[in-house]
Amino acid sequence: MRNPRQILAWCLYDFANSSYSAVVAAVVFPVYFSKEIALSPSQGDLWWGWAISLSMAMVAVSSPVMGGISDYSGRRKTLLVLYTLLAVTATSLLFLPQRGMVLLAFVLIVVANFATEGAFVFYNAYLRDIAEPGHQGRVSGWGFGLGYLGSVISLVVAIILVRQGNTALIWPFVGLFFLVFSLPAFFVLPPQKSGESLHRGAMKGMRIITSTLKDALSNGGTRRFLLSYFLYKDALATIIVFSSLFASTTLSFGTEELILLYLVIQVTAMAGAFAFARPADRWGAWNVVMLSIIVWVLLSTWTYFLREKETFWVVASLGGFFLGTVQSASRAFFCRFIPEGKEGEYFGIYALAGKSSSIIGPAMFGLISSLTGSQRNGIIFVTVMFVLGAVLLAGLKDSEKSEIRVFD
Fold first, then answer.
1. Beta-carbon neighbour count of residue 397 at 10 Å?
2. I want to staple 29 with a disulfide (CB 3.0 to 4.6 A). Which of 24, 293, 354, 366 is the partner?
3. What is the C-alpha to C-alpha distance for residues 104 and 92, in angstroms, rounded to an integer?
4. Cβ-contact 22, 145 below 8 angstroms
5. Are 345 and 209 in contact (CB under 8 A)?
């Protein structure tokens, strides 16, 4: 194990940004946006889906280039700080939009989501720096596990503020929480070796990113994993973005019920991330990812048919357990394909696959829901994406055994 302080600081960043992911992106703000800002639920579904899709498109387009810039300019930490401060500022200002101010809320969410998701390119790239190959699965799992603990704490505070009638204070609280617990990463994570000037680093990063993308996609194993990841991440992103709206609109969950439901999900997700942290190294990350996807196929199918709130509690709890598991194991599995010294570039490509998938899923779910008048029809799309992702991943089992990196 390398520097424990750096590992803790890295995990605390997940603890910090999970407050945004849980409270703003997944649970409270989507419903607040639909009921308190948008003029109708259908308008809320449509604008929310497009806000997430646009922000993810921005991340997808910029991430490979920014990953290259971070590698060759030596400014990885600087970029992590700048993206985080932008996310914190936009999130804190979400108290401003009032009824009918859909465009203002749309812009703030696009900025906050772009900055939060974009920062993961720089954050993920540190995994290879702070953990040896034999420990990357567990360290990745610890990060997700601590992140879910941050979600639990944030959601508890959100419940208190809702009960006090101070919902507007939730967003500045999330911004402050995000900032405070990001500080250890800003000061403790290792600096990069000095590189080019920012301008030259940017130019060099942009020149080589096409070549890097071509090299990555020319390798059959890397290409197959990225396509598989694109598909099942698309399904996961759609679930995260629309699950609270599905529970609220289709199953008639109230705001407090939603927060309590997601508290349970975060606890089970934290348990799943920690429970499979060591097995991801011992059993192999491929096995953990495949198991998780199969479970998600079964759960999404079950969700299409369920009608009772009580049953959704069971489905959501099981889903939570395998949510942290699949994300953590996917990140660890991808490390096997990264050549030495190109962590930022390759995690930029990883983000390109993950974030570009998040463009399609939320937009399609919102469109299907709006056109058919039923959110259940959008679940069919989610299930198909999981199945296709599992089929592609099935051909990569040998990569787990050989542990051969593409350019080693």
1. 12
2. 24
3. 13
4. no
5. yes
Number of H helices, E strands in the chain: 18, 0
Residue 118: exposed, middle, or buried by beta-carbon count in 10 A (0-12, 13-18, 19+)? buried
Contact of 19 with 151, CB cutoff 8 Å: yes
User: At 27, which amino acid appears?
Assistant: V
Supply the pLDDT for residue 407: 35
70/248 Cα distance (integer angstroms): 41
Tell me the whole-structure pTM to 2 decimals. 0.72
Evaluate the CA torsion angle 182, 186, 188, 194 in order and state its sign.
Answer: positive
Residue type, 148: Y
CA distance 160 to 135: 38
DSSP string, 260-288: HHHHHHHHHHHHHHHHTHHHHHHT-HHHH
Query: Does residue 126 contact residue 10 with C-beta atoms inside 8 Å?
Result: yes
130: nearest Cα among 10, 258, 212, 271: 10
On whether the 4-402 domain is CATH 3.40.50.2300, my answer is no
DSSP classification of residue 166 = -
**Integer angstrom CA distances of residue 220 from 64, 223, 400:** 20, 5, 14
Distance separating alpha carbons of residues 69 and 72, to the nearest angstrom? 5
Reported as type and span, the H/E element at residue 226 is: helix 220-249
Q: Residue 182 corresponds to which tokens in the numbers above?
A: 């990001």
Q: What is the pLDDT of residues 147-198, one digit of tens each?
A: 878 988 998 999 899 889 898 899 999 999 999 999 999 999 987 666 666 6
The Cα 38–Cα 345 span in angstroms is: 39
